[in-house]
Structure formats: C-alpha cells, structure tokens
Amino acid sequence: MAKRKIAQDKNDLLADFQALVSDTEQLLEHSGELAGEKADEMRQQISDSLQRAREALVNTEQAVVAKGKEALDQGETYVQDHPFKSMAVCAGVGFLLGMLIGKR
C-alpha cells in the first residue's frame, strides 16, 4: 500500500512539474504579446502550478521518510526478536567481506 502511495505521489509530482514547464513555456512564448489581464492570468496559473508541485514534493518526501522509518523499525524488531540469527548473518557477511578483501 505504501509503495502505491509513493508511486502515485511520484506520478502526481511529475505531472505537476510537467504542467509547470508547459505553463512557463506558454508565458515565455506570449510574454511579448501579453499585457494586463492576460499576463496576470498566466502568472497566476504558473503560481498555482508551482504551489501544487511544492505540495506534492513535500507529500512525497513525507511518504518516503515514513516508509524509511517503518523499514528501520521492522529491522530493529527483527534483530530484537532474533538476536542469534542476526549475529550469524552479520558474522557471515563479515567473513565474506574479509575473504574478498584478503584476496587482494
């Protein structure tokens, strides 16, 4: 479920950035022609797009941080529940790394 949320947030963020780029391109293309009300409308659209992109970025960041904390908590719980397995895995990894480094 968290993966879907992160993927959806990523897609929303990308869509907002694409809309921002599109609005900016339109403003640049028509900046010489636009005056007054039309220019203000384009600036407001760009401002709205930028605000949505910022919000999506914050939401995505929060989701990633939450997922990372959840994974850390799960790892800590596993080590606490299975201390000997955890030590054996660490010893095995250390042994393999020692063998690889020792061959050089």
From TrEMBL:
Record keyword Magnesium present: no
Residue intervals passing through the bilayer: none
GO molecular function terms noted in the UniProt entry: ribosome binding
Keyword Membrane: yes
Intracellular or extracellular location(s): Cell inner membrane
Cellular component annotations (GO), alphabetically ordered: plasma membrane
Topology term for the membrane: Single-pass membrane protein
Domain spans labelled DUF883: 12-63, 77-104
InterPro entries, per database record: DUF883_C, DUF883_N, YqjD/ElaB
Pfam families: DUF883, DUF883_C
UniProt keywords, alphabetically: Cell inner membrane, Cell membrane, Membrane, Transmembrane, Transmembrane helix
Domain of life: Bacteria
Family: Belongs to the ElaB/YgaM/YqjD family.
Protein name, per record: DUF883 domain-containing protein
Source organism of the structure: Thiopseudomonas alkaliphila
The organism's taxonomic lineage, starting at the top: Bacteria, Pseudomonadati, Pseudomonadota, Gammaproteobacteria, Pseudomonadales
